[in-house]
Amino acid sequence: MNKRMIRFFLAFSLFIAGTVYAQEPYKNPELSFEVRVEDLLKRLTLEEKIALMLDVSQPIERLGMKTYNWWNEALHGVARTGIATVYPQPIGMAATFDNQAVFDVFTAVSDEARAKNSYYMQRGEYGRYQGLTMWTPTINIYRDPRWGRGIETYGEDPYLTSLMGVAAVKGLQGPSGEKYDKLHACAKHFAVHSGPEWNRHSFDAKDIKVRDLWETYLPAFEALVKDAQVKEVMCAYNRFEGEPCCGSNQLLHQILREKWGYEGIVVADCGAIRDFYGKGAHETHPDAASASAYAVLAGTDLDCGSSYKALVESVQKGYIKEEDIDVSVRRLLLARFQLGELDDQDAVSWTKIPYDVVASEAHDELAVDIARKSMTLLQNKNNVLPLKRGDLTVAVVGPNANDSIMQWGNYNGTPARTITILEGIRAALGSTDKLIYEKGSSLVENTLMESAFGQCRSADGPGFSARYWNNTERSGEADVKTQITTPFNFNTMGATVFAAGVELTDFSASYNTVFVPQHSGEVVFDFYVNGIVNLLVDGKEVKGVKANHGSRKMSHGMKVEAGKSYDLQIDFFYNRGDAQLMFDFGYKEEINVAKTVEKVKDADVVIFVGGISPSLEGEEMGVNLPGFKGGDRTDIELPAVQRNLIKALKDAGKKVILVNCSGSPIGFEPEVDNCEAILQAWYPGQSGGKAVADVLFGDYNPAGRLPVTFYKNVQQLPDFENYDMEGRTYRYMNEKPLFPFGYGLSYTTFAYGKPRLDKAKVRTGETVLVTVPVTNTGGIDGEEVVQVYLNKAKDKSGPHKTLKAFQRLHIPAGQTVDVVLELSAKQFEWWNEATQEMDVSAGKFNVFVGSSSQDSDLKKLSLELW
Prior knowledge:
Pfam families: Fn3-like, Glyco_hydro_3, Glyco_hydro_3_C, PA14. The protein is an alpha+beta fold.
């Protein structure tokens, strides 16, 4: 081809490209997103529009649109898509009382999410957990400590939850002013939703006081919509005042869209539309067509599920018009343009984030830092902590001491490495110190298993090799292959897949390994299953179970000889409902308290690492053990098997330091007497073991504060299903709790001087400054969390006090700092009984300044708005 021909073809190509842009404005990156959306919308058929309203949005090849999966998780790190940095569970992050630290964490999370998305897109992969729309944060109010999903929240206080939620959203979505958004966050679950888990698909949160709705349940959502410009809101499973939340005109239209001016996407929690018509669920509608139309007209744009496929029928039957569907599709298309998902990836600056940020050293340091900040010291008799190194014999006991999976929490990724609490303590000891480790107790049950999982190795490495088929016959080549290095904990409840790329239903799996026991005896294989499971040893089926109505246990005992090889295979087949497969095996024996006490007799101190686990508390779980039901708790005490062992250690004259790992408050009444110290460690993430050890040995001075009230027992709690705030949380509780909201100890002491206001009488709408001198009266540097609470003087039905400002700050030993906190007009919003809404109105306020919410820790000022 000569040069003249080359020039001709180049010119012709440019002409064609210009013509295409002229004809197809939606492809022109120079145009506004809104113009491009309108052009693309008019090119779609009704069927194509509806296909875009499902969480797995189908490709439209004729228009150059790839598939897009809206469902991704990043609760405390990029979740469920391989290696990622795992930070502390959100309830632990809330304990930092440091919203800047939370922002830093989620900025790092968004870096990893973008890097992972670019990696997948380069390989043509667009599956679940690989996209840019993160369904987090969870900002429901943790109104009752029995709720299993409270571990995903930022606690019981509306103001603290608002600030933490805003920080998370801003960290995820990136700075404003960029052409493309970094990610899109999602405020969930809108709006009056906090358990119980077991009946959430049929539960009606009704007869809610209007004041409670606006003063407690809605403020965090309003803050995320107005202050953080969150791009998605997820509606909840339950009903609100008789209507399913995803079809609530009051919530979605009157409040969210009209009053707050929200213009983003509303996504249904997974399967929530099906609950409209599903048998045994809400049953407010007869079928998918009527339910789907109702939800879209109420304002729910995206269905995580398959119910919206019936929208074609809905239009045909006149339940909804195509132009009503256009409203939702317009929002969905705009979001995809804003993320740059429909444009050349080279033009999107966020795609330049390198993959090596994932699980990087810098992010690990961040995980250590926020885990340290979350550590909350609740008791320290006679200053037993910090421990002094040097000829110290430490016994580490308890079910959570060496459990890495517990530390990961739920909705988590897989860290490159986890430092367990046992490992952290071992690394922190001096050269002349000694360590004794004795597990001693399970979480709940009276037997103890020494897991043999670590004695297994497949052809592909330690643990079990896993193959998954997206059919129930294991036919053809496996669709997904992976390696499992820890005991199985798979559950599709809450729409969680067994592995990335595996369907929620109609799938099968085989898990293979070679087990070489280290000693002879009987091993017990323990399964908890919803589905069909077969256990094969050396190719022969030895046990099987089929669960038809909920999960079932299966156990099998087998004699083994040390050093002999045993080929193990576990076959799993989906049957019905939510699939579940929990599995571990090993040597079991009855718990022997006396034996444990004897083994630690030479210890100077016993560090008991106990509590509960995300395998017991969480989203709609199939675990029903004493004290637990469906993911929720039925009591709040430390499980009896742990209480008994702690008491025995105390009776044996041992100093017991309790390190408690839980996402929920524990009723520590006996432990207050039986333990010298109590450290609340939450679910501290991949570096939690180092953070705990740093606190125990004084390498870090703790300053975490409780974001939830620690009650004495369930007798202090109202009925779980009652959503009235009366008697709940520090804001309305009349009794004295075990440990109050905002409480936490330090290794140093702080003295508060006389606080002052810059003005005692101000016009409504003006800002007030509160100044209080705080002195570190101890011998070491430390951090203090200064807290400001308000109440309205003549308001008899409102909260006793409610948090309105706080600041975490470092104060060197012996120094005094004048701490200045700002109370803006927004902070003085209060319930107006006359207008039945929140506003800033004239009146006298009490201002409380101090170190926790309890009265003895606060100093009182008076202020008048006029």
